[in-house]
C-alpha cells in the first residue's frame, strides 16, 4: 500500500471520529431526588452545545410519555430553537402523591446522544 492511500485512510478515519463525537449531550444537575407531597425542588438541565435544528425535549415518566398516575406533577417539555444560546434550563419537580417515579428526557433530534 503506498503512502498516499495510508494518508487518505487516516484522514477519513480522523474526520469520522471528529464528526461522530460532535453530538450534544443532556445532563441533569441531580441524579436522584427525594421530595415530600406538595414539596417543590429545582433541577437544572444542561445541553452541552447549540443544535442546528429546532428540537423538542420531552419528559418521560418511567417508560411512558404521559403518566396520569404519576407521583409528581407533570413537567412541561422544553422547546429548543436552532442555534439558541441558552443551554441550561431550571425545572421544578413537585411531589403529587407518595411513591417513586423515574423522570427521563427524550428528544426528537439526532443531534443529541442518549
Describe the structure.
The structure is a single chain. The N terminus is likely disordered. With 114 residues, the chain is an alpha+beta fold. The two termini are 39 Å apart. The longest helix is centred in the N-terminal third of the chain and has 18 residues. The chain has a three-stranded antiparallel beta sheet, with no helix packed on it. A three-stranded antiparallel beta sheet has the order 4-3-6, with no helix packed on it. The chain has one helix and six strands, in the order αββββββ. The chain has one domain: Immunoglobulin-like (Sandwich), CATH 2.60.40.
Beta strand % = 25-35%
Secondary structure: number of strands: 6
Largest sheet: 3 strands, antiparallel
CATH fold-level label: Immunoglobulin-like
Query: What's the helix-strand series?
Result: HEEEEEE
Write a compact overview of the structure shown:
With 114 residues, the protein is α+β, with helices and mostly antiparallel strands. Helices cover 16% and strands 29% of the residues.
What are the SSEs and their pairings?
Layout: H1 3-20, E1 26-28, E2 40-47, E3 55-61, E4 78-80, E5 88-94, E6 103-107
Antiparallel strand pairs: 1-2, 2-5, 3-4, 3-6
List keywords for this structure.
114 residues; Immunoglobulin-like; 3-stranded antiparallel β-sheet; elongated; disordered N terminus
